[in-house]
């Protein structure tokens, strides 16, 4: 349909072209050809909803056609590259006269100026000069002068705007044509100004010089005041206007009320359109213009104004005939002159300035034009607020503060309900509440209206975005409000807590939110602190408290300044800190706190399609408040801090923007975490200050943070290079293994540094690896470094296994390697975490399976040679014997004083972990469900392997100092339970005699345990190992 409409317009142009060739049309001949074009456009634009769109397309197409002809763009290029080639090509050739007369005739000045602003500054000036040349071309008509001042004023009033698709296309086409050829500058209009000292384009200069040249030709009073209003306000906004508006919102409303009254007297209707235009004009004359004078000095511009005004005044053209009914242009002229004279006064310019002497004696400059009507002011304010016009929030504040406007009738309530979003600023809501309360105090408000107003106010409160820690009433809280606050606060939270930890339905949630909002209205800090107390102390309540807070984003107290967020200054965080300081929190309460804060950090999408949603708390706020201050070896809140950091890092990050963790000093944070990890590496040789879970969490957090920071460094290595080298140099003082955990941060920037002794047992390429001379890694410690590398990561372990220097064809090499590895295991085992030990067990299995680790299996826990095929279980048996030999060495006299009591408990737990791993492997090789298939080939072998592992465990349990390790005891029970399960599922795998011998053998072995309670439980379990064939 749009193409069809444009085809009709093309036809109209062709018809006009037959009357007079449009390519050579003179300005005086426009009236001869305009009818077919204008009538067609008027017919097509009868639908007002599409009129502007059709006009904009026409102006854009016509303009680009002329620019394309100026650039001498070939049809072949335009056909391929221009998206509007078909529209342009259907129009006949025409010149700039046709284009500019078309703009003037179809009153598309706003479209023309918007497209002007899409041009580069130099080209914008060239196009305005082209317009000026057209205006000054004979004959100069009144409508030409009007056109000029309309374009001038429209350019002055245009703010930065969001381009639509047509404007974007216009911009791209102009840019494309400019890049195709070196643009010859358009012929500049000679403005005959003597002090022109620079060649930079100056739009202010163009307009004022044209004004001077046209001034003598303007004789109509209406046009004179139009020219005066534009030029005097342009003078003020280009040279004299302060950066910030000096007019208050109340003064602005009074001026708007005067304008509305004046325009109504001139038969215009008060409505959103008139108010929007008036507000736009008023803002224009109070703010610096977007165009800076580059050539024209203020004194020269002022002299132009004086010369033109003096000429008008001498001819008696500056008088207002009907002073009681002035025009809008006359009023704007008065405002502009008042602004200029006020600026003169501030700058202490002489009062006898010629401009002042011309205008100050005029009666219309001092006479009051209209009386202010309160109803008109209120109506204008309501319209600005409801239409969300420029500065509407300040008008909302003014509206809220005017108690006389708080009629509290149906219309007033409906207005507040419809425009709740305008009253969500803190001061606005305070003023609104005070106005309403003041109206209530008069006793003239209907009860039903009172209830509705309270409901609306609560709804506004629920969505408010910022709340002061002092509450909405500041320090002067009305006594009527404070008397019942504590009672209401307790009642609200008791209702929520007694509801089973929180409401389950949306309606109940809304009720709970309303209760909280009501008390938060009086004292946000007390309300938030009560919610935090409930979330931490009442089991399970953290979930509902988080959901409620997410419905009240204003209670976060988050400031608009992002730097403040990054420093951890947050209302909720402050409340949580106070609770932690004043209350001894249990482990369960800390658990609830972590879950509570984790929920609040998760993004909440309040409306569908909201891609940029944020959580109630920003992750960086939580990190700065609870993590950074508490990362110390002896910090009581270290585990809490690590868990919060882990929760924050696990949040999904929206791609594109830099990760939030880069706002939290990521490199110092990595270094501190690395220091903490370094402290744990040898801690099992002494008293441990942290649990194993905390140490595991520390490694996880360090690795995760390293991956996140590494990804950001890879995006922009130049920005982070100094920080990267700083971190690398700082970690030099730490254990060499720490740098491998930070490998995602380094990337390929640095070589892998390992103890030099490792190169004796591992053939590593020198391009990627370098040796460190470390005193604790002397001659013969290569395998120690090798096992430590195997504990760090899967990838590093793969490298160690694939580059291991071992000749398996030489038995002495294999024997020496196996003995050396057992010694290295003895040294490495106490320093391993569970995840590191799992990696090391994985490496040991690989060595055993590949035949590179020789572990002879002896029958010391077997009276007779079993006639079984144990090849499928060779790895489990050899691994169990290897661990037994390691513990024999570790518990021997040469090593018995290595470990603290906690250290012995730790190595026992690691051995128990390995036992459970072996049990899991056996379950995989012989699932209990295999009995359904009748397969019992491996059942006897599994029982034998279980019996050997059980004996090895008891041997280690007896050797350990103290003779009791709970983890090993539990592993022993698990071994016996699985033994009994296999016997039960595969009854034929063990005869009555064999089960009797097994019970006797197990009982004898268990007798060596020192702990009587453990011994009794195990023997009771052993007594139940009875074959079903007995």
From TrEMBL:
The Gene Ontology biological process annotation of the record reads:
rRNA processing; spliceosomal snRNP assembly
User: Which GO CC annotations does the UniProt entry carry?
Assistant: SMN complex
What is this protein called in UniProt? Uncharacterized protein
